């Protein structure tokens, strides 16, 4: 869909009004127009627009992502920032991520020793979901292997339905007028299974509440708000499950897909692989695993991830809605009009990016730094006050995961080059053909990264 909309914009212009079943939709495909909108109307477009299916656990009426910009959204964001995603929270949980990264390395090493084929996206998804779960629920998360596999399976199923969910959101008004609800049964089947699984996980956490210090982790704070224990905002149990589902699906699927796209680009470009490996060997060496504290000293690795996000953003279409009528570029836009920002087109806009369709990490080493006062051309995690609050964590997880894969293993692909074709039927970008490789250890038994973290 994003490519079809990009083609329409290239022919008719970057700021368009489309009509779908006679309902207007504003389509934006230019960095300069995005800047104009968010400079003057950020609050006005702070709503993510219509909810496709109210009862759905992901992107539904109980979720955080689609919640109106108000007290509930601000309360949930405050909890996420103070307990999980903010700088101080990330510092406190660094040891969790180090342990999970070591497990990621050991799992890859085991597959290498057994000469097994590795599905990079699946391995990255396991790493991300396990890390998020431990950060959210502590040691009680997924102690049973079958539950871990069920979370992974349901996250993948939701991802496969992402374009249908997006369509139910953008087209809700015309679909209601026509009295049809396409995809609802299919979507709710997955949602109900996810809700049952998350309820079991929460109950197990509650049974072990005495084993950890209350309110030290995000789940305890959410449960306290559910029980009404001095909460700024009382939430219900479905709010908690919806937030968890959106974390595992939204953060888990998107972050693992970024890792897969990044490795595909690296393996398709031997020069980039060699330069990245040289940087990691120089900064980290071969006696220990890469760790988060190394990242500021690895600018080329960071540039590779930024370039991956530019070419393959997790959310290609960003839906919003105008809360009040306003005028943009001389055109009046009525209240309630849907806005769709084609992030894919913005980040390949030839007016703002040199060689926009080529993978060039060097552009993020200073040559093409974004001029924010003129344009918003780099928006892989959204834009404005409703941008993704977990962008720093996501980038860190991808950078360390790719760092381990490049530092510790040599990779062999089938054929001469990886097929970069995009999967169809998804609102979140994915490779049409999952990246599967065989690997061999490159360095002998590096020390775990968690052994290298200075005590605080």
Residue share in helix: 40-55%
Rg, rounded, reads: 22 Å
Distance between the termini: 48 Å
- Derived from helix and strand composition plus strand pairing, the structural class reads alpha+beta
CATH class placement: Mainly Alpha
> What kind of sheet is the major sheet?
4 strands, mixed
State the CATH architecture. Orthogonal Bundle
Mean pLDDT: 88
Nutshell version of this structure?
The protein is an alpha+beta fold and 456 residues long. The protein has helices spanning 2-12, 31-41, 71-85, 87-92, 94-113, 120-137, 145-160, 162-170, 172-178, 184-207, 218-227, 237-267, 270-283, 299-311, 343-346, 391-408; strands spanning 15-20, 23-28, 118-119, 317-321, 326-328, 331-333, 338-342, 409-412, 436-441. The protein has one domain (17-452): Cytochrome P450 (Cytochrome p450).
Description of the molecule:
The chain has 456 residues and is of the alpha+beta class. The chain has one domain (17-452): Cytochrome p450, CATH 1.10.630. It has 16 helices and 9 strands. The chain has helices at residues 2-12, 31-41, 71-85, 87-92, 94-113, 120-137, 145-160, 162-170, 172-178, 184-207, 218-227, 237-267, 270-283, 299-311, 343-346, 391-408, and strands at residues 15-20, 23-28, 118-119, 317-321, 326-328, 331-333, 338-342, 409-412, 436-441. A hairpin with a 2-residue loop joins strand 1 (15-20) and strand 2 (23-28). The chain is globular and about 65 Å long. The termini are far apart. Residues 451-456 have low confidence and may be disordered. It is a single-pass membrane protein. GO terms for molecular function: heme binding; iron ion binding; oxidoreductase activity, acting on paired donors, with incorporation or reduction of molecular oxygen, NAD(P)H as one donor, and incorporation of one atom of oxygen. Its cofactor is heme. This is Cytochrome p450.
């Amino acid at each position: 869909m994003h490519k079809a909309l990009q083609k329409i914009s290239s022919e008719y212009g970057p700021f368009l009004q489309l009509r779908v079943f006679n309902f207007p939709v504003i389509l934006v495909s230019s960095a300069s127009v995005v800047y104009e909108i968010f400079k003057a109307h950020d609050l006005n477009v702070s709503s993510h627009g219509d909810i496709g299916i109210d009862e759905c656990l992901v992107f539904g009426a109980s979720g955080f992502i689609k919640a109106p910009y108000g007290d509930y959204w601000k309360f949930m964001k405050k909890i996420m920032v103070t307990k999980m995603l903010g700088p101080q929270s990330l510092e406190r949980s660094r040891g969790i991520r180090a342990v999970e990264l070591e497990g990621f390395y050991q799992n890859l090493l085991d597959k290498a020793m057994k000469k097994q084929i590795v599905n990079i996206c699946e391995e990255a998804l396991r790493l991300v979901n396990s890390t998020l779960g431990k950060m959210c629920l502590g040691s009680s998360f997924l102690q049973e292997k079958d539950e871990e596999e069920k979370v992974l399976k349901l996250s993948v199923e939701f991802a496969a339905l992402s374009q249908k969910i997006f369509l139910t959101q953008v087209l809700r008004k015309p679909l209601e007028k026509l009295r049809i609800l396409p995809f609802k049964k299919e979507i709710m089947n997955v949602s109900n299974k996810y809700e049952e699984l998350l309820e079991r996980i929460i109950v197990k956490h509650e049974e072990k509440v005495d084993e950890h210090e209350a309110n030290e982790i995000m789940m305890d704070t959410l449960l306290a708000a559910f029980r009404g224990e001095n909460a700024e905002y009382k939430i219900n149990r479905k709010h908690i499950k919806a937030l968890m589902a959106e974390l595992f699906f939204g953060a888990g699927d998107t972050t693992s897909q970024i890792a897969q796209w990044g490795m595909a680009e690296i393996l398709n470009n031997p020069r980039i692989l060699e330069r990245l490996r040289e940087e990691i060997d120089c900064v980290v060496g071969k006696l220990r695993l890469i760790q988060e504290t190394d990242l500021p000293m690895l600018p080329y690795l960071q540039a590779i991830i930024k370039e991956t996000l530019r070419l393959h953003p997790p959310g290609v279409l960003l839906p919003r809605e105008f809360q009040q009528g306003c005028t943009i570029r001389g055109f009046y836009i009525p209240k309630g009009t849907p806005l769709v920002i084609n992030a894919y087109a913005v980040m390949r806009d030839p007016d703002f990016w040199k060689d926009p369709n080529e993978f060039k990490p060097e552009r993020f080493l200073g040559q093409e730094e974004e001029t924010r006062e003129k344009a918003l051309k780099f928006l892989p995690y959204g834009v404005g006050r409703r941008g993704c609050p977990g962008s720093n964590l996501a980038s860190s997880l991808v950078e360390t995961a790719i760092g381990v894969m490049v530092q510790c293993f040599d990779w062999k692909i089938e054929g001469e080059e990886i097929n970069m074709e995009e999967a169809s039927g998804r609102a979140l970008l994915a490779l049409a053909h999952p990246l599967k490789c065989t690997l061999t250890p490159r360095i002998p038994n590096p020390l775990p990264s968690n052994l290298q973290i200075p005590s605080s």
